[in-house]
Specification:
homodimer, 338 residues, alpha/beta, Quinone Oxidoreductase, Chain A, domain 1, Rossmann fold, 2 domains, 7-stranded mixed β-sheet, 15 strands
Chain lengths: 338, 338
C-alpha cells in the first residue's frame, strides 16, 4: 500500500484564513474492496468556494469537518481497480480532496469521470473543461442569456471562471469586458484571452472611480455581469447597468472573512429593472454535458487558452490557497502532485 | 367649456416632498377635435411612483416636467365625445392626471378603457382591479411564481398592492405574511384581508429585531417576497429566506428622498441562491387582461375587499400624497372629485 499524504482542516479561521488552519498528515491507503478504484492524483484544484466551507456558519453547503481531508476537485490516473468500468491507466477526474491518493466507489454516480487527454490537457479538466468552466457557462447561458451585440462584464476575469466566461461570451457575439487586478492581468485578458477591454480595479479607490473606467470600457452600458467578487466591484457595475440587465452571482470572495459587505445602491435593481441571481453549479448537473462539450471544443480549437498557476507538491497547497484568496494567482490555481 | 382645476408640479423637492412643490391652477377645457373625448374625473389615484417622477435624476421614467399637470391614473365618465367608440355616460379609466377634466385621443391604444361598474365599484379600477392590482399579480405570478404551501411575504401589506397580493397568494394556497406599520393595519391585514399573519415593523428598531418577528410569523422560512419598501424591511426578509427564494422589487419608497439605502447583506443572494428582480408593470402590458380578469373576479366575489382612503376635492391631493409617502393612508389612497 502506498503512503498517502493528506491535508486536513485542523482549526477554523478567525477572520482571514491562514496556513495554520491546515495540517499535513500521512496515512496508508486502505486495501480496496470490490467495486472500488484507487486513484493517484496528478492535480489538485484550488477554488474560492473552499474558503466558505472552512467556516462553521450557515451557507449553501455543509462546513468542512475538522480533522478530515479538505474537499477538492482532482485529476489523476487509476492505479488499481476492482471495478470493471475502470482500468489501470485510465485518466479520471473526481472530488478526491487534498491528498495524493483517493479510494472511490466506482458505482457512485458522478463521483469519477473518465476523460480523454488527446485534445485537452488533463489539468484543464479542473478548470476550463471542469467545474469552473461549467460555472461560467451556467451564469452566462442560463442567467445572463445574452444576445449578440450586448455588453457583458466579468470580475476576476483572468481566473478559471473568468477566462472561460470570456471565450463563451465572445462565441455568442458579445462585447466582453473584464475586471482584474493589475496591469499584467488586464493586458493578458485583452491580448491572450480575447477580451475587448479590461479594467484594473486596483487603479480605483472606490466604486465611483471604477464605474467611470467601466463607462469608458462599456460605451453602450452593461447588459450582463458575472460577479465573482462582490463589494466595490458589484457597486461599480450596477452604476453602469442598462435596463433589464442580468447579474449572475457566483462569488462574494470579499465577504468570506465575515466583514460586512453591503450593496451600496439596491434601488438600482428597480430603476433598471435588473435581475440578480445567485447560483452554485453543483445544483445544476443537468447542464454539465452540454457545457463541457462546448468548453472542450473551445479548448481543443484554441479559442480558449486558459492560463494556470501551478504549485508543486501537496505541502504547498495551503499557501497556494491563501494566495488564491488574495488574488496572487494568475489563472487557474492548481497543485501538481505527480 | 367647463373650468378645469389642475395641479401642476411647481418646483422639485429638495429632500422630502412637500405641498409647496405643487400649485393649483384653473384653466378652461379646450374644444374637442375630431376623435377626442372629454372625461370628467370622479377619482384620482395617488401612488408612490409619483414621488420618483418629481425628481430630475435618472430613473426608469422621464421626470415630471415642471409647470405641467401631475401624471396620475383617473376614473370617471365621458361627458363629451367626438369618437364613435365612446358615448356620453361611459365609465372609463385612464391616465388623466391631477385635474378635474382631461381631453383624450380616443384612438390612442390603451389611453382610455371602458369599464363596467355592475360588480366592481368605479374607484377599484384605480386599485385592486387596476395598476396596483396588476402590479401585485405580475410580481407574484411572473417573478415569485409560488407553489401551494410556500410562504410569501409582502411589505406595505394593507396598501393597494399589498392587499391584492394577499388575496392572489391565498388563492394559490400560500401562507401569506404581511409587514405593515402599526397594530391597526396589522389587525386589518389578518382580520379583513385574510393574511395568515402580519408583522408590525414599527415595533422593531432594526433588521435583526424585525427578522426575529418574521421567524415567528414564517416558521418554515420565506420562499417569496414582494418588496414595496426596501431598507430595513428588505434586510430583515433576506435573513429569513429559504434556498431558491424569489424577491420581486416593486418599490424602494424609503430611498426616494435621496438618502443612501444600502442592502446590508447581499452575500445572502449567493448563500441562498436567491433571485431578486425589479420590474415596472407598465412594461408588461401583455399580462393586464389575464390579471384584471382574475382581480375583478376576486373583488366581485368578495375574496378581495380592498380598503380606500379618500381625500375630498382636487385641492386636497398634495397633502394626501405627502401623507401616502409617510404611510398615513390606510389602503388605496384616492382623491374624490365628484
Amino acid at each position: 500500500m502506498p503512503q498517502n499524504q493528506q491535508i486536513v482542516l485542523d482549526n477554523r479561521p478567525i477572520g482571514e484564513a491562514t496556513v495554520a488552519n491546515f495540517k499535513l498528515v500521512t496515512t496508508a491507503t486502505p486495501e480496496l474492496a470490490d467495486g472500488q478504484v484507487l486513484v493517484r492524483h496528478h492535480y489538485l484544484s484550488l477554488d474560492p468556494y473552499m474558503r466558505g466551507r472552512m467556516n462553521d456558519g450557515k451557507s449553501y453547503a455543509q462546513p468542512q469537518p475538522l480533522g478530515e481531508v479538505m474537499i477538492g476537485g482532482t485529476a489523476g490516473e487509476v492505479v488499481e481497480s476492482r471495478h470493471p468500468k475502470f482500468a489501470v491507466g485510465d485518466t479520471v477526474v473526481g472530488m478526491g480532496g487534498w491528498q495524493e491518493y483517493s479510494v472511490v466507489d466506482g458505482n457512485a454516480v458522478g463521483m469519477l469521470r473518465k476523460v480523454s487527454t488527446t485534445h485537452v490537457p488533463l489539468s484543464h479538466y479542473l478548470g476550463a473543461v471542469g467545474m469552473p468552466g461549467v460555472t461560467a457557462w451556467y451564469g452566462l447561458v442560463k442567467i445572463i442569456a445574452p444576445k449578440a451585440g450586448e455588453t457583458v462584464v466579468v470580475s476576476a476575469a483572468t481566473g478559471a471562471v473568468g477566462s472561460a466566461f470570456g471565450a463563451l461570451a465572445k462565441a455568442r457575439g458579445c462585447r466582453v469586458v473584464g475586471i482584474a487586478g493589475g496591469p499584467d492581468k488586464c493586458a493578458y485578458a485583452v491580448n491572450e484571452l480575447g477580451f475587448d477591454a479590461c479594467v484594473d480595479y486596483k487603479e480605483h479607490a472606490d466604486a465611483i472611480g471604477l464605474s467611470k473606467a467601466l463607462k469608458v470600457a462599456c460605451p453602450n452600458g452593461i447588459d450582463g455581469h458575472f460577479e465573482n467578487v462582490g463589494g466595490m466591484v458589484l457597486d461599480a457595475v450596477m452604476l453602469r447597468t442598462n435596463a433589464f440587465a442580468r447579474i449572475a452571482v457566483c462569488g462574494m470572495i470579499a465577504g468570506y472573512n465575515g466583514a460586512p459587505l453591503p450593496m451600496a445602491n439596491p434601488a438600482l435593481i428597480l430603476v433598471n429593472r435588473m435581475k440578480i441571481e445567485g447560483f452554485i453549479v453543483s445544483e445544476h448537473m443537468e447542464v454539465w454535458p452540454e457545457a463541457l462539450t462546448e468548453l472542450g471544443t473551445l479548448v481543443a480549437t484554441g479559442q480558449l487558452r486558459p492560463r494556470e498557476s501551478v504549485a508543486l507538491g501537496l505541502a504547498a497547497a495551503p499557501e497556494a490557497f491563501i494566495g488564491l484568496l488574495k488574488g496572487k494567482n494568475f489563472g487557474k490555481q492548481l497543485v501538481k502532485l505527480v
